[in-house]
Amino acid sequence: MALGIRKLLVLSLVVAVFLLANIWLVVRWLDDVGAVGFDRHVRTEYLTGTAITILVALLILLVGPGARRLSLSRRCPVCDHSVSGGSKYCGECGSKV
Ligand SMILES: [Zn+2]
């Protein structure tokens, strides 16, 4: 971990502790600015149960490309045969996995 990243981490922790210590001032400031009313409006108008359900389902269905590599058994992209171990070629059709 580089020194710059450590400094940034310590600085962000100090800011986080400062904000947590003065949470009521932050909340009052947000209420004075009008962010709380706007947030309440957005929550009641746009974040219905159906919208939250759809968002959660999309987050579950969207799987990153690295997730496939974590599984132990791979599939051949040509014949869909199971490829075992660290072999680079399919045993059924011979294509490169
Ligand atoms: Zn194959």
Structure description:
By secondary structure, the chain is mainly α. It has a domain at 3-47. The protein is 61% helix and 4% strand. It has helices spanning 3-21, 23-33, 35-46, 49-61, 67-70, and strands spanning 74-75, 82-83. A two-stranded antiparallel ribbon has the order 1-2. Strand 1 (74-75) and strand 2 form a beta hairpin. The longest helix is centred in the N-terminal third of the chain and has 19 residues, at 3-21. The two termini are 35 Å apart. The mean pLDDT is 87. The protein binds zinc ion. Zinc ion is lined by residues 76, 78-79, 81, 90, 92-93, 95.
TL;DR?
With 97 residues, the chain is mainly alpha-helical. The protein has helices at 3-21, 23-33, 35-46, 49-61, 67-70; strands at residues 74-75, 82-83. The protein binds zinc ion.
Q: How many β strands by DSSP?
A: 2
Unreliable residue runs:
none
Cofactors, ions and other ligands in the entry: zinc ion
Kindly report the spatial arrangement of strands forming the biggest sheet. Answer: 1-2
Number of helices: 5
* Spatial separation of the terminal alpha carbons: 35 Å
**Proportion of residues in extended strands:** under 5%
